[in-house]
């Protein structure tokens, strides 16, 4: 009987074709997941979404310097629900009209009269003012204003000194 050779020309089969196929499928799925995750992260962190100093053009000129600064109107008067809900809602025109129903601007300040007249036009046309968001999270992100406000965090911590900003801008990155 011949003695078996210790050196064989064919390597031993370690893995089956089915196993190799599973390895490739797993590699493709993991690679695709990493790519999609990287693209979503890049999209969420794109500079115009996170940059400080972002101040979009708004449909109306509104002075936080006058309202929140000089007149000391609290943030929660206009931005209702910030202490109760997930969002600090942008006020509807009806909130503006609480004061501007009677006060239409100082006649000695024509620019002020013009700005109030714009608000009144929206009110009379029963149209909402569509403000551009300064802070806007992606849909997959969850943020609760009420949790932060009720825990004692002041608006200024995230939004800065709004009462000194002629045009509201983002002061913190997201």
**What share of the residues lie within helices?**
40-55%
The helix/strand class is: mainly alpha
Q: Report the portion of residues in β strands.
A: under 5%
Q: Give average pLDDT, whole number.
A: 85
Terminal CA distance reads: 79 Å
Q: What is the succession of H and E elements?
A: HHHHHHHH
The value of Rg in angstroms is 30 Å
Major sheet size, sense and barrel closure = none
Shape: elongated
The low-confidence runs, each spanning 5 or more residues with pLDDT under 50, are: none
Instruction: Specify the number of helices.
Output: 8
Q: What is the tally of beta strands?
A: 0
Give a description of the structure.
With 174 residues, the chain is mainly α. Helix content is 45%, strand content 0%. The protein has eight helices and no strands. It has helices at 17-44, 47-50, 64-70, 75-78, 93-100, 110-125, 145-150, 155-159. α5 crosses α6. The radius of gyration is 30 Å and the shape is elongated. The chain starts with 16 loop residues before the first helix and ends in a 15-residue tail after the last helix. The mean pLDDT is 85.
Key features?
single chain; 174 residues; elongated
Task: Give a short synopsis of this structure.
This protein is an all-alpha fold. The chain has eight helices and no strands.
Question: How do the helices and strands line up, and which of them pair or pack?
Answer:
Layout (H helix, E strand, L loop, with lengths): L16 H28 L2 H4 L13 H7 L4 H4 L14 H8 L9 H16 L19 H6 L4 H5 L15
Helix pairs in contact: 5-6
